[in-house]
Amino acid sequence: MGFRMSAPPVAGARVRRSLLDAAGLAGRSRGVRALTAAVSGAALLVAVAGLLLPAGLPADRPLTPVTGVALAVTLVMAGQLARLRFRLGRGFVSVSWGEAAFIIGFVTTPPGWLPAATLAGALAGWALLSWWDSQRNLAEMAHLAASLSLGSAGAALVATLVAGNAPVLSTVTAIGLIAGALTYQLITFGLATLTLTLHRDAPARQILVRASYAKIPMFVGNVAVGLGAVHALVDGPLWLLAFAPALWLLQRTYRFHLRAEEERRMWEAFSAATATLPAGTEAEVVRAGLGAALDVFGARRVEIEVRGRDGERRYAQDGPGQDNVVAGLPGPAITRTMAVAGDAVGELTVWLADPTLPVPRDEAAISAFGDALAGALHDAAARTRLAELEERITRDLTQDRLTGLLNRGTLLTEGDRLLRSFDRRRPVALLLLDINDFREVNGTLGHRHGDEVLRTVAERLTELARADELVARTGDDEFALLIPTVTTLAGAGSAGSTPSGIPMALRRARDVVEHLMAPMEVSGVRLAVEVAVGVAAGAAGRVDLAEMVRRASLALRQAKRQQVSVSVFDAAQDAVTTDGLALLAELQDALAADDQIMLNLQPAVDLVTAAPTGVEALVRWKHPRRGQLSPTEFIPVVEHSAELHTAFTTRVLDLALQAAGSWHAAGIDVPVSVNVSARSLLDPGFPAQVAEALRRHRAPASRLVLEITESVAVSEERIVDEVLAELRDNGVKLSLDDFGTGYSSLAIVTRAPVDEIKIDRSFVDDMIESTAAEAVVRGAVELGARLGVRVVAEGVETTEQRAALIALNCPAAQGYHFCKPMPDDRIVQALTQLAEAAPANIRPLRADDAV
């Protein structure tokens, strides 16, 4: 039994030339070098000492001593030439006909000369093998020959002690020969195991188990061949001619046995390695792949090149026990391109330890491993892209895409959280600023350069902001600065009253105006912008941020009207105190009348077929004096009155369900959508109010869809969750309106399961020219698909927008491109025309039909 630990460096490898390299010790550990020196020295001493012993042979031996020595050398050399190898970890173990050569040599050669004969035969055999393979590793040859010589010395000693001077064909001699062959096996087996263990080619237990499995059948055959040859030499030398076919058959049998075991081991390791490839990041998959390839193929080195959208990355790992800096890259390399569905993922390169050309089995296994690794890398890349998309969507929902500042929804959420953490009497302030005549900048320089102006303003505001202050972009050219700590002037406020932060807030506002007026250069044009600032101040515990924004907005409007830089909120500016009260009384009259509160109805359609899938009810007030009013002009007044709010909600539900009944009577089965305010969801009686409206109109709950606005998610009241849950239990569908415009969108999706997501029209408007807007729309569609809810795109006005949404697999949309809002007396005709003109694949608003 022998061993082979590595192959010499490949041609062209840049290595340090040294005595170690010349001797073939490059890349080996110190333990292996020491063992090589000890075994070689011991074998040389034993061989020399054996030659000094008497050279006589008993009279019944078939050959003379000289002829016997020549035969022993020839047999050892032939045994090494016919050696069989198998892989153990990253090294190779050689098994040969050494036991047969020993048995014949012991009978024909003086026992003392047998170690020297074995040493000479082994060196000659490995010299021929090295010459044939064009490999010359002196240290390896010496180590192997010395191990075999020590094995034969121990075997000769044991056989001599057992057999003594017994006749050659006696039973005692046969037992001695078997004992000697076993000793030979144990010594060479032990030295090979020790060498491989020191070289870290494989664990010691694995070496013992696999080497024993491979060698034991050959050991039995070797002993039988050796004893048979001895009988033939003594009784009838002509019988030796019959040994040739028997030896050929045994060699083939051994080779098949080792090859089957090697393939079984490799494919078992391959299966285990590919099954445990992690479903993690690229680095985790590559790390596992490198280690698995080293183990499965017993490789000296493995390299993996990964190709991605951001370029190529190369990873490599060397097998243990090999100093590649000194020894170079041993063995041939197999490179395979890794691909998934024809798309190249990278390349896998494996340097085998065997210096000979790789067999088809190795190439097939490496190809299969590369395919498994390619799939794992492709999955890792897909997970990374999905995480990036989700991160981008989250960032876009909390930040302004152009400037990177907080958006309006995040300002309200974070600002309220900040205010609640303060003492109730702590003075806080909000500055709301707007760029004067910004339309002229866009008209003169273009929108791209106008965006650059907005980014510059955002950067300057960020520079002015102090710790804990929040900066946000709240509109096209509108920005906000929340000042949570306003230093009050000494003596400000009377004793026991809440201190006022207005004087210091005014000072900060003027600093902002002066800082933003500094000239800036945009597209080679030097310009300066002027801003107007509205200031609102109050105590942290007496006002929420939404109210502060409203007050600052009124102050900003006053500053623009008076053409001044800074204006402070005054209660006289609050429309709720004057016009608001008048509007409240007029709304009561409107609810008592039958013809003032009315609905405009706009269909939502299937994007592909334009078949109607639902109708949104848009409330209007036909004011007898001021004409038709939009919801923004009177809904705030409704929100301030509990009684008026309940009556108004009932009227809107009745009008919507009455209109829905008209088109259902015409055979059009689509629901009606009604916007729900935050106040309704804070009312525990709202679900009962909805149920009563459905009962009055004898309408099923599936006919009604309630659209939730973003202000719902800002509220942290538990009652909101309870109201939403009761509505869903009653069968009423929920829709999340204006999705994507603030932090609250994702918050409400996680708080209350919805049946529909409506993408805000601002993203639909920009998606053709803005990749960021397109990414948000794509993310919303994918989120809807993952949640199993329907997605509707709002504000579709052009054919290009419709085509882009279809390409993103968005199922439905509404907008002027399909149908404008219309009175209820025209909606049935419009829905009928849409239904008749479209193929019969209408998708009703059902969560289980969402795409």
From TrEMBL:
InterPro entries: Cyclic-di-GMP_PDE-like, EAL_dom, EAL_sf, GGDEF_dom, Nucleotide_cyclase, Rev_trsase/Diguanyl_cyclase
TM region(s), chain numbering: 34-57, 63-81, 88-107, 113-132, 144-163, 175-198, 219-250
Family matches, as SMART domains: EAL, GGDEF
CDD domains: EAL, GGDEF
One Pfam family, short name: EAL
Domain GGDEF: 426-571
Name of the protein described by the UniProt record: Diguanylate cyclase/phosphodiesterase
Protein's organism: Paractinoplanes brasiliensis
